[in-house]
Amino acid sequence: MDGGYRNAEGEHCCSPNEDCDPIADKDLELTPQGWKFLPTGEVISEGDTLQSRDPEGRHWRCRGAIVWRNGARQPQKTRCLFIAPGRS
Q: What is the C-alpha separation between 44 and 55, in angstroms, rounded?
């Protein structure tokens, strides 16, 4: 990821090589509501996704800050989801 991207709320998607990682096809499911990231159960509407420019055709997920509730670490919210061409 080369940075500079923003999500629908105008937040920067990521800091290159810090909070974005490639994700496998098996971790995504397209639902009528949008893309479901299976490890967290989050659903990201198709309008809130961006097209991945990964030369290897991979999807990417950028995550937000770590959140703690009642002393327990919560799953990091998806800040931006990049879908490989041909999947959206």
A: 23
